[in-house]
Amino acid sequence: MRPAMSGLRYLPVLLCWCFVLAAVTAAPASDGKQPAPAGNGSAGSAARVTYILALGDSLTAGYGLESADSFPAVLEKRLRGAGLSVRVINAGVSGDTSAGGLARLGWAMDAVPGGRPDLVIVALGANDALRGLDPAMMRTNLARILEQCLDAGARVLLAGMQAPRNMGTDYAAQFDAVYPELAQQYDVPLYPFFLEGVALDPALNQPDGIHPDAQGVQVIVEKMLPHVLSALRDL
């Protein structure tokens, strides 16, 4: 399920982790504002709105991008263009770890009309790896996030991350294994690597060479879209 990485491919991923860590102190936390939904029908439409909560860090929040170019906004526009009545809520906070995501999950879900999203995209863990935090603790935090979402009746799509290889092969193996193990344990779909197709391509990153630019976000959304559509069909 996870994309193989070897040799020189480790270097771009390591650089990506290093820059995200720098963003913890360099970038302000998300102000909580939601991207405006794109229109997809008349105001009088009776179609039920499907709410998707995107829970993550700076990669979800849209670091360095206009709000309309962030992952949640682009995903919403793409889904609405496919004829779906959806609202994707940006619950990304720069620098957040799995512990931070767990701590704010309750109020993030409360911000959704009705107090429960239909689908939660969980994209956390990059900063746990950057800080060398115990993968076992990250696993516990992510497990609690999944449990709370599922107990609330929400569907979950788990987006995986990968550890920088300078942490050692044992650490990387333990970290990388967390996502497929949790997906199997909780019977939730897994998107193996959030930055797949973008992390290794300088043309799809901002001038910093690390965070996806607007085109890079488009690539991420297109690659993840089949997984999102599959999760929505199971609602």
From TrEMBL:
Q: Which residues form the SGNH hydrolase-type esterase domain?
A: 54-218
Tell me yes or no: is Ribosomal protein among this UniProt entry's keywords: no
The record ties this protein, via InterPro entries, to: Ester_Hydrolysis_Enzymes (IPR051532), SGNH_hydro (IPR013830), SGNH_hydro_sf (IPR036514)
Query: Could you tell me which Gene3D superfamilies the record lists for this protein?
Result: SGNH hydrolase
Question: Which stretch is the leader sequence?
Answer: 1-22
Q: What are the protein's UniProt keywords?
A: Hydrolase, Signal
Q: Which domain of life is it from?
A: Bacteria
Enzyme nomenclature, EC number = 3.1.1.2
Q: Does the keyword Nucleus apply?
A: no
Q: Which GO terms describe its molecular function?
A: arylesterase activity; phosphatidylcholine lysophospholipase activity
What's the protein here called? Arylesterase
